[in-house]
Amino acid sequence: MRRVAIVAGARTPIGKAGGAYKDVHPVELLSVTMRAAVEKTGRDPALIEQIFVGCVQQVNNQSMNIGRNAWLNAGFTERTPAFTLDAQCCSGQEAANLGFSVIASGQADIVLAGGVESLSRVPLGATQGQGVNFPYPDSLLAQWDMPSLQTAVEAAAIKYGVTREAADEYGVRSHLRAAAAWDEGRFDDEITFVERDEAVLLSQDQGIRRDSSVERSAQLSPAYSPDGIVTAANASQFSDGAASLVLASEDACDRYGLEPLAWITDTALVGSDPNFMFEGPLEVTDSILKRAGLTLDDVDRVEIHEAFAVPVLMWLNRYPYGVDKVNVDGAGISLGHPYGATGIRHLVHLAYSMRRESLQVGLQVMCGGGGLGSGTVLRRD
């Protein structure tokens, strides 16, 4: 199996749904990051052999293979094929994992993986029709409840003993960490800006609450049930954004003078109980560490999808790993969660963080709707 490197990546600042990017087509959002990631390599875009893009709600503005449309919109060669995949919130990460597999198996030398979602233009639930358009037939529902995210997260909190107080404290930590990361320039290497008439639409992630506090959080009413723990303070945000990264084989790095940010060495996608879909990160952590021959003692940094505070706290309660090394610069609660882009955003940030801080091993795990867990291990020589 051939070695595969992340050699460049870029993401937009993440906008709030109905915010800075409400008038920007998601094809344009993704094109901006594709151009930026390719430009960082300093090489001909025609060297990109395949494109894989994650996008969850593939209707309307995000339909008709948005990955292909964004590549063409970027002004690049029509000879490069692309396709768009849906693994729910794992979509972006699985686009990168698929790119890794294609290169590792010798089918390509350089690929681009991306992700995008615009909740402004394609609101939550746009793909979930009712009646004859309902996604779940009775035969499936006879076997599984297929609960909503809202029902599943509250059930997971009860099962794993996650309290409202712990969730609020974690949410505050996410916001304050994200604010500090921006102030200290820890996102500078990965950001590319979206412009209109030569004006930058958004200069930082729009959802960060710098005045976040446990006291403010405690005043919010539960979002889903009177005795629930989920509120706007400990849940991810409806967001617009995009991210892209370029992957290359070791041979291509040598041939074209590409500098690896980090090497992808192991990937995994697992299924978990659909009724407790937030167990995916737990299941995939066990799987990928075993596959990689690692323990958490070997891992310098962990990125976990912050769909809510609950799955991160479930993970921290399960594993003997310090919160000081998990999502150290914030994640979905503070930065935002543009579904298809989130996995790529995490990987881009992890790769640049590892280079900047001379970290040797990084782990990224995510949960996905329907019961999925996605994992990726990054290493530096």
Task: Explain what this protein looks like in three dimensions.
The protein is α+β, with helices and mostly antiparallel strands and 381 residues long. The protein has a single domain, classed as Peroxisomal Thiolase, Chain A, domain 1 (3-Layer(aba) Sandwich). Helices cover 35% and strands 19% of the residues. It has twelve helices and twelve strands. It has helices spanning 26-41, 66-73, 91-104, 138-141, 149-160, 164-183, 214-218, 250-256, 280-292, 309-318, 332-335, 339-357, and strands at 4-11, 15-16, 50-54, 82-85, 110-118, 195-196, 199-200, 239-249, 262-271, 301-304, 361-368, 372-379. Strands 1, 2, 3, 4, 5, 8, 9, 10, 11 and 12 form a ten-stranded mixed sheet that branches. Helix 1 (26-41) crosses helix 2 (66-73). 57% of the residues are buried.
Find the count of extended strands (DSSP E, 2+ residues). 12
The percent range for helix content is: 25-40%
The first-level CATH class name: Alpha Beta
Stretches where pLDDT falls below 50 for ≥5 residues? none
Number of structural domains? 1
Which geometry do the CA atoms define? globular
CATH-level-4 superfamily name: Thiolase/Chalcone synthase
The helix tally amounts to: 12
Judged by helices, strands and strand pairing, the structural class is alpha+beta
Largest sheet, in brief, is: 10 strands, mixed
Order of helices and strands: EEHEHEHEHHHEEHEHEHEHHHEE
Could you report the average pLDDT, rounded to the nearest whole number?
97
CATH architecture: 3-Layer(aba) Sandwich
The value of Rg in angstroms is 19 Å
Alpha carbon gap, first and last residue? 17 Å
Q: What is CATH's topology name?
A: Peroxisomal Thiolase, Chain A, domain 1
- Beta content: 15-25%
